[in-house]
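Please, structure for the following, as tokens.
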Amino acid sequence: MIVLAIAGGSFGLYVHNYLGGATGNTSPELWTVVTGLVGALIGLIATPFFTLRPARAMRNMVLQIPASTLLASMVGLIVGLTAATLLSFPLGMLPSPFSQVLPVLGAVIFCWLSIYIFVMRQRDIFSLFRGRLPTRLAAEGTGTANEGRSVLLDTSVIIDGRIADVARTGFISGTILVPRFVLHELQHIADSAEPLRRNRGRRGLEVLNELQKDLPSVVRFTDIDAAGVREVDDKLVVLAKQLNCAIITNDYNLNHVAQLQGVSVLNINELANAVKAVMLPGERLEVKIIQAGKEAGQGIGYLDDGTMIVVDDGLRHVNEKVNAVVTKIFQTTAGRMIFARLENNNK
């Protein structure tokens, strides 16, 4: 800022000297001071537009780029410059003006092409050096850690808690990434004045603690952020696109928003529905009737996996275990619903 202020003041003095005698009867010394101060003021005002704002924009852009992408870009640049240097010798032997233009043009083309190729194929390239690179590079950019793609955890799926059981089974083959902004949201929820919300936040922190203790080589916390994006869900989508990884969530809205933007989503609720026992019409089951259904005479019960069983004429057996026969099965967005009748009922 001081340098630009001095430059502005010098420019003001230059303008005064250039105007020369256009000051009229006014003292030349006064005009010298005025033009110098005006130039310095203009320099101070213009400083952020030429220094701070470009530097801040460059910083935000660099922070959004994964470390693996930066490394792939640098390697591509080195390869491009090497190829351009080797090609410059035969091109320099051509007649003028080709000997001056083609080496520069070749350097630009080879550098751009090499950077493009290395960034686009970074996942395949880093997989060749798996085990020789830092774990963070593999987790954040390549998705090759633990023989699978990396996945991002949403706040809702952490609070849900089932992700800990799923991770222990080994069905998640890649690295589990927990962004810092998700951790901060959990801390904010855990500090809430509302008891229910506070308990949910603390439950999420406990789940993360369990995951980190049980699976230290699988769970990673990452500082990569999506600059310029405020909402946590939006940050997750942007980050998933940058890292080329999937999002694990049970949030209905985040699920659809991410899919619309081409981001892979692993929904815990869909996984739970998929692994429920398959039942066919005519099969027998034992269920405890716990409440009345919507229709007259219906009784409602649940299997161990949470599947709802609607039993015709089961209302009179509330709080009793009955044998029933499956009649129909409906798949809804909320899960599977099974209709049955009492086994000794001939209807």
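Residues 21-26, 138-147 have pLDDT under 50 and may be disordered. DSSP finds 13 helices and ten strands in the chain.
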